[in-house]
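Sequence in, structure out. Go.
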Amino acid sequence: MARPKVLLIDDDVELVALLKEYLEQDEFEITAVHNGEDGAAAALTGAYAIAVLDVMMPGINGVETLRRIRMKSTMPVLMLTAKGDDTDRIVGLELGADDYVPKPCTPRELSARIRAILRRTQATDAARDGGTAGAALTVGALSIWPGQRRAQYEGRALELTSTEYNLLEALAKNAGKPVSKKELSEQALGRPLARFDRSIDVHLSAIRHKLGNLPDGRSIIQTVRRLGYQLIRE
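Output:
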């Protein structure tokens, strides 16, 4: 079985060497790039299963690098953010990062996060290779094909990141009833919900933007106080 190809974009040469050594022992194939310009270019070659991107880099920082990647690709991106720096973290998620890991982090934690994201994207790749749509899950104007991890709303295709797709599918499968943030974190991010973690809220905000509003101005994804989020049946 081929090793997953990981693109590591970080200007910290010593840290990159440490992470590269551990991840290669953990059956990943690592390519390291030390600036945002080269990182964005490498990411857009389509040669990598996932990019791990540091926010704090001189010149073109991680946020701008992610912006450039997202202009042309929905490849999975895991952000490395400064511990406690909510601003960069939220901006990264708003731009379409799949998840984040606060620095300093252990190589073991980073490896686990990478594998959690890749598990979700491998299902997409397998379905596309199989070339079968399967049965659609339909809620009002929203249609989802779990076999292909593909969704459309009002007849138009939705360009979703892996995490956004997972969240929308989880809500669609439970349409008409609220799903807690804890459940959504476990199903969409592949990890327990951390205290004060706003990742789910930010991802859902992005999904709402892509869906647009109903004629009465409401979103089909509603916040249910103290219970979570609910996809309404139109």
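Check: The two ends are 45 Å apart (CA to CA). The CA atoms of residues 94 and 109 lie 23 Å apart.
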